[in-house]
Design goal:
The structure is a homodimer of 227-residue chains.
Chain A: H1 2-7, H2 12-28, H3 34-41, H4 45-57, E1 61-64, E2 68-71, H5 73-96, H6 105-111, H7 117-126, E3 152-153, E4 162-168, H8 173-181, E5 189-195, E6 202-206, E7 211-214, H9 216-221, E8 222-226
Antiparallel strand pairs in A: 1-2, 3-8, 4-5, 4-8, 5-6, 6-7
Chain A binds a DNA duplex (30 and 30 nucleotides) through residues 11, 13, 33-35, 43-51, 53-54, 65-66, 68.
Chain lengths: 227, 227
Amino acid sequence: MNDLAQSRSPSSSVGDYLKAVFELAADSGDAASTKGVAARLSVSAASVSNMFARLQEMGLVEYERYRGATLTERGRREALRLVRRHRLIETFRLEHLGYDWQEVHAEAERLEHAVSDAFTDRLAELLGHPDHDPHGDPIPSAEGTLEVDDSFPLSEAVAGSRLRISKVRDEDAAMLDYFGDRNLVPGRLLTVREVRTLDGVVIVEDEDAEVYALGEPLARSMFVRDE
Amino acid sequence: MNDLAQSRSPSSSVGDYLKAVFELAADSGDAASTKGVAARLSVSAASVSNMFARLQEMGLVEYERYRGATLTERGRREALRLVRRHRLIETFRLEHLGYDWQEVHAEAERLEHAVSDAFTDRLAELLGHPDHDPHGDPIPSAEGTLEVDDSFPLSEAVAGSRLRISKVRDEDAAMLDYFGDRNLVPGRLLTVREVRTLDGVVIVEDEDAEVYALGEPLARSMFVRDE
DNA sequence: TCTAAAATTTAGCCTTGCCTAATCTTATAT
DNA sequence: ATATAAGATTAGGCAAGGCTAAATTTTAGA
């Protein structure tokens, strides 16, 4: 009964936790904290403690009390499978179902737990094996490899540099709206006019010579790469 | 807390039961039995009794102990929403993902619980608002209406009649294989050569003058309409 | 009609996930 | 160096859904 639990495909809840740990680690480079995961999944901290212990039993995370959790190799593979599904579904919804760039995120959270690997791979084929989703996030390969990410938040840019938008945080719908409305989307070129340390405002100019002053929250939500 | 349960969208388990009751009633015209639902969902009879009581509380079925359950109007609407999703997803998988006619059924069971109505309607549009799925089953409209079904199993045909295949039972993969391999699919025309009451074998000839002798189990799985 | 088999329900228990309240640990600020 | 705040864990519950075994009702056969 124990090794059965090992071989079963993780429940949708387990998957959500793995993805949260994966994404928090990507941001901070560190172990995922109870609090961080709780906030991301809108559950209580107690539930996270509880789940961390179970994930460790299942061999999906390395966990030490009061120290947070990091993914094991198996946990990381699992998380990447879900990320792959999520991003392909988003791309499908955008390109074939006519959803707005901003609307794409929400429902994919649910669907990613319901589709099989076979479905995912056929979807990838239908879409022409894209390597980035509509927000600019890289899509993991079917083999579980993920492009190394050399992008950084616009808030850390230096004045005068020329940058390409690589991705936009997809957690906040209002921010997605803002960027979407102004066509500040992955692939666009920006020139940094000013980075004001005083208040964190970053002033950029786009390819059409439009100038935008972005406050720190916005500047932290847009990721760029040196061009 | 009680009326919240009323307004919530039913859990995936609840939906599975509603669909099972719906489909059993369609077959037998009668209340769905505990045993029938248990067999269809691969669950113990005790679980079904339990769930019938809960479904009644939720106002989704009419249920009397030892007498089986029938859907209420609300229960029927819920079931039809799921059936609509299921059949549209099957159609999508066949037409856009290149699945075989036989493979289509299985995964849709899981997906139908994860997609929203909005997704479903956009999918319908992408597919050109089909009114039948690949097995020939009618797709309920977004408003919850379903074509009246005047088809009957081939096992009840009379010798000499000309019939069109309307649908094929999709529960048994081996039978789907058999029919699929021989191109005995919805839309094809058949002429009944002989109906042998002795052993239930039905002998038919298709449009290409191929002749098939179908035993009772197969003849009961193929539905036809007078042409 | 009466009895045995089949179907159904009840009782009692388990697991997964989630919650709140109370208790620890660790980190921070004097 | 230590008090306190912040973060994490434990304890104890709850609801959904499932199961088995035992009891009950219905149905069918002699």
